Amino acid sequence: MKYLRIIFWILGIPPLGFSFSILIFYIHAGKILGQSPYYNQPDPKEIDVYTTYSPLVDWTATIWLLSFPIWLGLLILRVVLKKKGNNWRPILITGSSQILAILMLFSKVFKWYIDWINVLWPCESIAKFLLRFWFKLG
User: Each residue of 5-38: pLDDT tens digit?
Assistant: First the structure.
């Protein structure tokens, strides 16, 4: 069980690597441009440092996406096996890193990086529609 705890802690690192690598690239691109980049303004591939950051962002994203289902399985296993006396600190800390990476996945930073506007984010369009509809009624 000790090994599972160590693996659980290690699986909390890849989402932080992904989040920080893409944020650092975004901030660096913003410094080069003198403004915050947004979708297609400019295309990330047009920035000189893209060749430096792209492998790091892609690699950390791949590692995180591969480790997420393992982390989720270990989370379920840990909660089921240790119903009483469960230490919630590792769950909260590694869960926070996973949530940060998921939020980064649906952020404008990632949308700018992959250069897709409406392919992966249909929920955003639905949310905007519902908000407009809600405020028209209210």
Answer: 788 889 999 999 999 999 999 999 999 988 888 8
Residue 15 contacts residue 98 (beta carbons within 8 Å): yes
Q: Where are the alpha helices (DSSP H) in the chain?
A: 2-10, 13-33, 50-81, 88-105, 108-114, 122-137
Number of CB atoms found within 10 A of residue 121's CB: 16
Gap between the Cα atoms of 102 and 131, Å rounded: 22
pTM for this predicted structure: 0.77
Burial class (CB in 10 A: 0-12, 13-18, 19+), 26: buried
Q: Using one digit for the tens of pLDDT, what is the confidence trace for 52-99?
A: 998 899 899 889 989 999 999 988 888 887 766 677 788 889 999 999
Q: What is the rounded distance in angstroms from the CA atom of residue 46 to the CA atom of residue 137?
A: 44
